[in-house]
Amino acid sequence: MKTAVVTLFSIICLMSAAPGFAHGGGNVDVDVVTEGGETLHMIPHKNYETGGAHVFKKYLEAKKGQNYGIVIRNNTPDRIGVVIAVDGRNIINGSASNLRTGEAMYIVNPYSSERLDGWRTGKNTTHQFYFTDAGDSYSARTFSDSSAMGVIAVAAFRERVRYGYPKERSMQQAPAPAAGAPARDEAQGLNSEKAGTGFGDERYSPTVTVAFEPEGTPFSKTLIKYEWREALCGKGILRCRPDDRNRLWDDSRYAPFPPGYVNR
Q: In this predicted model, what pLDDT tens digit does every residue of 145-193 receive, in sequence order?
């Protein structure tokens, strides 16, 4: 049985399989919020079904230097597991993520929400997410990875249904991956016009470890492409225009003739 992480106050290992149950309805919402809790506006892009998963694609305007968090809302009657990747790296252990069932994941209880504010660096610590140039991103600087730069990705998994008497299981948390060779050269070569997520200040963020066996495929995926305003304007995602002229300040033209005026 897989272990997963819950943001609570102590370490707990559950040593039994989950009893059988029927899955209910509902969906999963994903928001990006500021450090103060303000929800950032997202622009829907695509919404479709594939491989049994409902996929939501959205755009988000990133503001350089802004700390942010990811809020997951579980609107279903069952607990779910969520694999979260930022710039292509799993936010719990830094591994390259393909949003698959075998990856480290957070657990969100029924009809509840979790806010994840950073890269997990220990049982009780994270380092804050913040928008920055791609070359300053955690993914590029630590792993020389720019393959999924500027994407916040969340895959939600239902718990596998089991029947029969619980059996004891031993569990071990998978170790975090070792960082690759220094990525300074590649990071410096990345276009500064692209946005990424940095490795910010340390924050206290206690967790517990629980047993959770996810289904083989996610039932929901949310992919958020965040970019600087200039890039979104260039793609036509945002309607951008020069500032309106000031009617009391800017010189425009001479006074117009009134309608129907005849020069005498």
A: 999 999 999 999 999 976 543 333 233 344 455 555 454 555 555 667 8
In a domain, 201, yes or no: yes
Can you name the residues that pair with 67 across neighbouring β-strands?
A: 130
What is the SS3 assignment for 43? strand
Note the pLDDT tens digit of each residue in 213-256. 999 999 999 999 999 999 999 999 998 876 667 767 776 667 77
Question: 174 Cβ partners below 8 Å, 6+ apart?
Answer: 3, 93, 104
Q: State the residue for tokens 């755009």.
A: 59
Q: Is residue 254 part of a domain?
A: no
How many angstroms separate the CA atoms of 223 and 220, rounded?
10
Task: Give pLDDT, residue 246.
Answer: 72
Task: Please check whether residue 105 is in contact with residue 173, taking contact to mean a CB–CB distance below 8 angstroms.
Answer: no
Contact 106, 30 (CB under 8 A): no
Q: For residue 76, what are the domain limits?
A: 3-234
| Residues 4, 104 contacting (CB under 8 angstroms) | yes
18 pLDDT higher than 80:
no
Q: 17 and 212 in contact (C-beta within 8 Å)? A: no
Name the pTM for this structure: 0.79
